[in-house]
Amino acid sequence: MAKTLNVLGRYSFNASVPCEGLRPLRDPDTIELDEDGAEE
Predict the structure, then answer these.
(1) DSSP line for 1-40
(2) Whole-number Å distance between alpha carbons of 4 and 14
(3) 24/21 Cα distance (integer angstroms)
(4) CA 40 to CA 28: how far, in whole Å?
(5) Rounded to two decimals, what is the model's pTM?
(6) How far apart are CA 31 and CA 8, in angstroms?
(7) How confident is the model at residue 9 (pLDDT cuts 50, 70, 90)?
(8) What contacts 24+ positions apart, CB below 8 Å, involve 25-33?
(9) Are the beta carbons of 33 and 39 closer than 8 angstroms?
């Protein structure tokens, strides 16, 4: 008999520090470095 977890419903998540609006979007022309410091 298979048991499943019912996760349907409404959930509320509150940020611990409220932000002041939306964060800026990432610039697609910037070069991002990975964790090793090498370009991706």
Answers:
(1) --------S------SS--SSPPPPPPTTSPPB-TTS-B-
(2) 27
(3) 9
(4) 13
(5) 0.24
(6) 40
(7) confident
(8) none
(9) yes
- CB-side neighbour CA atoms (13 Å) of 6: 2
d(CA 28, CA 10): 34
User: Over the stretch 10-26, which tens digit does the pLDDT of each residue have?
Assistant: 888 777 776 677 778 88
Strand partners, 19: none
Residue with tokens 């939306």: 22
| Structure tokens given for 2 | 């298979």
